[in-house]
Design a protein that fits this description.
Blueprint (H helix, E strand, L loop, with lengths): L1 H50 L1 E3 L5 E3 L2 H6 L2 H34 L3 H14 L5 H11 L4 H6 L11 H25 L3 H9 L4 H30 L2 H7 L6 H10 L7 H32 L2
Antiparallel strand pairs: 1-2
Helix pairs in contact: 1-12, 3-7, 3-9, 3-11, 4-7, 5-10, 7-9, 9-12, 11-12
Length: 298
């Protein structure tokens, strides 16, 4: 009984010490939460508030779902669908290509190759927006260098289309996927392959029953990240295609700038709210996948 009482007192003392340390740490994170509230919470709250502000025919402002309904119907629904389709196609292609390249780098016995690929991936993953669009126009545009050399116009290829946007997005998404999936591939321990081989498993059986199941959370998490990256991209599409390819990011920009109709700012905020909801759904999928991947590869 005495020993049990001592252990109980020790546990209680440890819990009190942890609570005291937790209280002492709170002041250190207050500036961080203040930064989040100012730079993220305030703009998000303003956007959500104004998205439900509807201006009537008399000019009086009220609250309603008119902007949200408009953002999910007609041409705006087409833009949202186009952005989702572009993001899904780009994410799937970038995930497959990036995983294959990363696997080739991991299995290579040349450290210089790995360093070169990682360095190049880090540079290319951040090369997007208007500079990337101008580079593609100069290379694959109507009068681009490769367009003339390969006579691409005779094949019906057009850079200023859905396919052209996918190619441009893959330029920076594949390197991003390589950087994202490399740690997961490094986490596949050599002992697992040796143990599988000692049990008579072939290389195909190892990947089918061990490698792919272990990497699936990381690959799915990378695919979700690629989707979010493509879904939020705007500058590359704006320079390359203008409004020829319906995308919600371009429609938001046009509504805010009054390029189509004047006084559609709240409608643009409603479309932004739609994007935020989709982004939150993406995060809700990605976070559990990241945790599961980290648990497998610790």
């Amino acid at each position: 009984m005495a020993d049990q009482a001592v252990r109980t007192a020790a546990v209680a003392g440890a819990r009190r010490a942890v609570r005291r340390r937790g209280r002492h740490r709170w002041p250190a994170v207050v500036p961080y939460f203040a930064f989040l509230a100012l730079c993220f919470g305030l703009p998000a709250g303003t956007m959500a508030y104004n998205a439900f502000v509807v201006t009537g025919e008399s000019g009086a402002a009220g609250y309603g779902l008119g902007n949200v309904r408009s953002s999910l119907s007609g041409a705006y629904a087409t833009g949202l669908t186009g952005s989702v389709e572009l993001s899904v196609v780009s994410a799937l292609l970038a995930t497959a290509a990036g995983a294959l390249i990363a696997q080739a780098v991991v299995t290579s016995r040349r450290p210089a190759l790995r360093k070169a690929v990682v360095a190049a991936s880090g540079v290319f993953a951040n090369f997007s927006g208007a500079p990337l669009a101008f580079a593609f126009i100069a290379t694959l545009g109507t009068t681009g260098t490769l367009t003339k050399l390969l006579s691409l116009q005779s094949t019906g290829f057009s850079l200023y289309s859905f396919t052209g946007l996918v190619l441009a997005y893959l330029y920076f998404m594949i390197p991003l996927m390589v950087v994202t999936v490399l740690p997961a591939l490094d986490g596949l321990r050599t002992q697992w392959q040796e143990a599988a081989a000692s049990c008579g498993a072939t290389r195909r059986q190892f990947w089918l029953h061990i490698g792919v199941p272990v990497l699936t959370p990381s690959l799915l998490g990378g695919a979700v990240l690629m989707f979010g990256t493509a879904f939020a991209s705007q500058a590359t599409a704006a320079v390359m295609t203008g409004s020829s390819v319906p995308l919600i990011t371009l429609q938001i920009s046009n509504a805010l700038n009054g390029n189509v109709l004047v006084g559609q700012e709240n409608l643009a905020l409603a479309m932004s709210l739609d994007m935020v909801v989709i982004a939150l759904l993406v995060m809700a999928v990605q976070i559990p996948l990241q945790r599961r991947s980290a648990r497998w590869l610790e």
